[in-house]
Design a protein that fits this description.
Structural class: alpha/beta
Shape: elongated
Low-confidence stretches: 142-172
Largest sheet: 7 strands, mixed
Number of strands: 11
Distance between the termini: 46 Å
Helix content: 40-55%
Radius of gyration: 24 Å
Strand order of the largest sheet: 7-6-3-8-10-9-11
Length: 400
């Protein structure tokens, strides 16, 4: 230790030895304050901040009726209207989000598919998704239209709305029908975008119009791609699903039924697809010891670091989650994480806004071609979870 520093330490030590308990307490509090401020600055530096959205990333392409690829068209952007309403309310001194609302839905079901270099796996997943969406919500269903139409929501004799509790402001209100798929090519370097458009072309005119493809100039990460897609959905419900098709898509019906059961008076709800029931199955047991060890370690970390309702979710990382439209403004505008840990932030935000969440067992199978590096990405997720929780707790991230 340099002599000058050693002399300063000795003076402080001698001073503290002779100090009264009140002075020692003051020194202790001052030290804690300095450490807290230093930790805040550290978090401010390392906590992820999403990059600005580029103009070209707010457009999409689709297949025209003549089979050609359309020019870039602007994506609908419910968050823009939400931000305008929010600013107007803030200017009046109201700091809550409860009076803002969101634009009415145009279709019943939106599917967001984040895709990074998925030309080899995307087609299989889309085929399964379209088959189910068309069967359940397509133009051949009574009262529905391929491009999205409306049907009347009605209350049953017991006051229920189409079988579930009605939002307080809904009574015989038009409900949308139809579906859409929004594929977000997350800075892909392969032919992901071409694959998606070619698949849409193969469906013919009716269904092709419902598949939109947007491209991010640079890779944002799965969380960034999902959040970007969720800003532009038109659906009464919005599902995001992984491009690998590992989740059994027809289990979407289970999520819809559960979310209808738990929606609050404002129509808010989240249904989380879960693989927790498969932990003892051959599919999981035959994985490497390291992968299973890291999985259980991450679950323990979640239990320690996240608030109670989020910690109670047994599978936070399954890429199959459904959101009701009224829930989106309480979650999407406040997202920061763009990495693998984004699912946890979504659930934490839902918990903070007191949005009901249901965990629903779904079918799932391992699909070759995963881009997950088990060891490195697990360490990154643990670090990301710590930073995420600390940033919200310390006020680096805020809802206002």
């Amino acid at each position: 230790m340099p002599p000058a520093l050693a002399e300063i330490v000795e003076i402080i030590t001698n001073g503290l030895r002779d100090a009264s308990p009140y002075v020692l307490a003051a020194y202790g509090l001052l030290s804690l304050y300095i450490l807290a401020q230093a930790f805040y600055v550290f978090l401010y530096i390392v906590a992820p901040t999403p990059r600005d959205i580029l103009r070209s990333e707010t457009t999409y392409k689709h297949i025209e009726d003549n089979g050609s690829v359309s020019y870039a068209k602007p994506l609908p952007y419910w968050k823009s209207t939400f931000d305008q309403r929010k600013k107007s309310i803030r200017d009046k001194g109201d700091l809550s989000d409860f009076n803002i609302g969101i634009e009415d839905a145009e279709v019943y079901m939106s599917l967001v598919v984040p895709a990074f270099n998925e030309e080899n796996r995307l087609g299989v997943m889309l085929r399964e998704a379209v088959e189910y969406l068309q069967k359940e919500f397509g133009h051949d269903k009574p009262g529905a239209a391929a491009n999205g139409s409306v049907r009347r929501r009605h209350k049953d004799a017991d006051g229920q709305l189409n079988g579930h509790a009605a939002p307080k402001d809904v009574d015989a209100k038009a409900e949308p029908t139809g579906w859409e798929i929004l594929i977000i090519s997350d800075g892909s370097k392969d032919k992901t975008m071409d694959t998606a458009l070619e698949f849409a072309r193969s469906l013919g005119t009716e269904s092709a119009r419902m598949i939109r493809v947007a491209s991010l100039v640079e890779n944002r990460g799965k969380g960034g791609a999902v959040t970007h897609g969720m800003r532009h959905v038109r659906g009464r419900y919005a599902l995001f699903a992984d491009a690998d098709g590992a989740s059994k898509f027809e289990d979407l019906g289970k999520l819809v039924r559960e979310i209808e059961k738990i929606e609050d008076k404002d129509g808010r709800g989240v249904a989380v697809g879960s693989r927790a029931h498969l932990v003892g199955s051959e599919e999981v047991v035959k994985r490497s010891f390291l992968r299973n060890l890291l999985m259980h370690s991450f679950h323990l970390l979640l239990w320690i670091l996240t608030p109670p309702a989020t910690a109670a979710i047994r599978d936070t990382q399954c890429g199959f989650k459904l959101f009701s439209r009224p829930a989106l403004p309480y979650i999407i505008p406040y997202m920061h994480s763009e990495s693998w840990i984004f699912d946890v932030e979504m659930l934490m935000l839902a918990e903070a806004a007191q949005i009901p969440v249901a965990e629903v067992p779904i079918g799932w199978h391992e699909v070759p071609g995963s881009k997950l590096n088990v060891l490195w990405d697990s360490l990154n997720m643990a670090w990301g979870l710590f930073v995420l929780r600390a940033a919200w707790a310390m006020g680096v991230y805020r809802r206002t």
